[in-house]
Amino acid sequence: MLKKIAIASVVAAMIPFATANAAVESGRTIEQVYKECGLGGAIFGNSSAILAIISNVTWDLGTTAAISDSMSPENCQGGNVKAAVLIKEAFPSVEKDLASGQGAHLSALNSVANCDSAASVRAQYGQYAQTSAYRTATQDQNAEALYSIVKQSCAI
Fold first, then answer.
1. Which pairs with CB-CB distance under 8 Å and at least 24 residues apart come from 147-150?
2. Domain total for the chain?
3. CB 95 within 8 A of CB 68
4. Residue 107: which residues within 8 A CB-CB, separation 6 or more?
5. CA–CA dist 98, 109 (Å, integer)
6. Pick from 22, 49, 77: which residue ends a domain?
7. Residue scoring higher pLDDT (53 or 128)
8. Are residues 20 and 70 in the same domain?
9. pLDDT at 94
10. CA 22, CA 66: separation in Å to the nearest integer?
11. What average pLDDT does the chain have?
């Protein structure tokens, strides 16, 4: 048991170094990756760089930000990528806020998707949520459906 804890501690300690290496390979600084990528960048990238960095570090030590940066060069640019990352990474919270019509995740989605027609997104997703396709779909499939609605209804 103690050996497993020691191995887990070493792995956890290495994550920031792997993140730093990925950032250097992509030509971006760690600061840029943490501000513009991952869940922190998706939620807070347009409003507060400090909150984006804190969110990325707190969420998973920045690994999602580094992975999203390293997967493709355009991964952290534009509202469509940020909206997709936000929907994918925080889908249950986005869906909950969408159902209630308010909340931080819905505000973040409206911001990154440059969405003036949030009521339209809410109505369309509400209609989709009443179908058998919604009930039989996986969470990822429902997130993709929401992203399609957002992409169609908003300026991303």
1. 147/83, 147/84, 147/87, 147/88, 149/121, 149/124, 149/125, 150/83, 150/87, 150/109, 150/113, 150/115, 150/121
2. 2
3. no
4. 97
5. 10
6. 77
7. 128
8. yes
9. 94
10. 6
11. 76
Taking only the tens place, the pLDDT of each residue in 39-95 is 777 777 667 778 877 877 887 777 777 777 776 545 565 567 778 888 988 999 999
Are 135 and 70 in the same domain?
no
| Measured distance CA(106)–CA(114) in Å, rounded | 12
Separation of alpha carbons 115 and 121, rounded Å:
9
CA angle, 92 then 34 then 106, to 5°: 30
pLDDT reported for residue 72: 53
Q: How many residues does the chain have?
A: 156
What are the backbone dihedrals phi and psi of residue 73, each rounded to the nearest 5 degrees, phi first?
A: -60, -30
What is the domain extent for residue 73? 2-77
**Would the pTM count as exceeding 0.85?**
no
List the structure tokens of 134: 């919604």
Are 70 and 109 part of one and the same domain? no
| Residues 21 and 39 reside in one and the same domain | yes
Question: Which of helix, strand or coil describes residue 149?
Answer: helix
Pair 6, 73 in one domain: yes
Q: For residues 53 and 107, state if they share a domain.
A: no
Supply 114's token pair. Answer: 């440059």
